[in-house]
TrEMBL record:
GO terms for biological process: nucleobase catabolic process. SUPFAM superfamilies: Indigoidine synthase A-like (SSF110581). One of its GO terms (molecular function) is pseudouridylate synthase activity. One of its GO terms (cellular component) is cytoplasm. The gene is psuG. Keywords: Glycosidase, Hydrolase, Lyase, Manganese, Metal-binding. It comes from the Bacteria. This is Pseudouridine-5'-phosphate glycosidase. The active site is at E25 (proton donor), K159 (nucleophile).
Length: 304
């Protein structure tokens, strides 16, 4: 039996010809950003990947098939859909086997990208260890996926709503390379620096591509987390955000928000509390990540 995988004609052609491809997730569209900025951003990200010479492959589960590459109509329908499932490693097979529809998180998008033969994936920020995890045990399945599936994920670090020191510790335990791009500090999503030193630093797309290929040569499972700082002009200083994040987190705790609902709740509240500033920054950092991911994909497709 083969997986119920549907590659768009453009993606199938690029895979067959060994052209650079960049996988893109859909949870950021359905749960990460409000309408209509979610659709506008998804379209802009695809256009950015194309301008950079790669082929975008937005991934989602539609009526029991894993789509890699969405046509404009499907992308728009997904962006407008309500109550879409948020799929991670645990629920992907159940959704496919029951003919369901759902958006893919970082974890599920990595699985799909790997099945389709795509090595590089751009997103905003990965999930990680939530604040208070010592009692809630809330740790994103994205971390385990980075340890298991050989896809290089370009993000602006882990989201600043998380406990970043604990997230780094878990990634270290899992053997996931965390590579800051062009600086020593780990970026913190909306801000360029988390104040923590990243375990690794690389300055060029070519180096990052070479490290991806080397992991494969060594037979190491798992991918790389490329932590690309948000452009300076778009960042929100960490000290401006800290009280906002604390308020959103306190509201989530008071309302008993748990499991998969935590991240979407926090992102939405921070959007409201910053009068949309957090969304502008989120869009800017995703586009920035799409550009770097395209350059890495080009180097993997045609090594120097
Ligand atoms: N990047 C963003 N916004 C998002 C996400 C990433 O800029 O909403 C999504 C990704 O799909 C990621 C998920 O996998 O947030 C993390 O969810 P959780 O913390 O529940 O694992």
């Amino acid at each position: 039996m083969t997986p119920p995988l549907t590659l768009s004609p453009e993606v199938a052609d690029a895979v067959a010809k060994g052209r650079p491809l960049v996988a893109l997730e859909s949870t950021i569209i359905t749960h990460g950003m409000p309408w209509p900025q979610n659709l506008e951003t998804a379209q802009k990200v695809e256009a950015t990947v194309r301008e950079a010479g790669a082929v975008p492959a937005t991934i989602a589960v539609l009526e029991g098939r894993l789509h890699v590459g969405l046509d404009p109509e499907r992308l728009e329908a997904l962006a407008q859909a309500r109550d879409v499932a948020k799929l991670s490693r645990a629920d992907l097979a159940v959704c496919l086997a029951t003919g369901g529809t759902g958006a893919t998180t970082v974890a599920a998008t990595m699985i799909a990208a790997h099945l389709a033969g795509i090595s590089v994936f751009a997103t905003g920020g990965i999930g990680g260890v939530h604040k208070g995890a010592e009692t809630s045990f809330d740790i994103s399945a994205d971390l385990q996926e980075l340890a298991a599936t050989p896809v290089t994920v370009v993000a602006a670090g882990a989201k600043a709503i998380l406990d970043l020191p604990k997230t780094l510790e878990v990634l270290e335990t899992l053997g996931v390379p965390v590579i800051a791009v062009g600086q020593d500090a780990l970026p913190a999503f909306w801000s360029r620096s988390s104040g923590l030193r990243a375990p690794l630093r690389m300055d060029t797309a070519a180096e990052i591509a070479a490290a991806h290929v080397m992991r494969g040569t060594l037979g190491l499972p798992g991918g790389q987390l490329v932590a690309n700082p948000i452009p300076e002009a778009d960042e929100i200083p960490a000290e401006d955000l800290a009280p906002v994040i604390a308020q959103a987190q306190a509201e989530a705790d008071a309302q008993g928000i748990a499991a998969k609902d935590v991240t979407p709740f926090l992102l939405q509240r921070i959007f409201e509390l910053t009068d949309g500033r957090s969304l502008d920054a989120n869009i800017a950092l995703v586009l920035n990540n799409a550009r770097l991911a395209s350059a890495i994909a080009a180097h993997i497709a045609a090594p120097a």
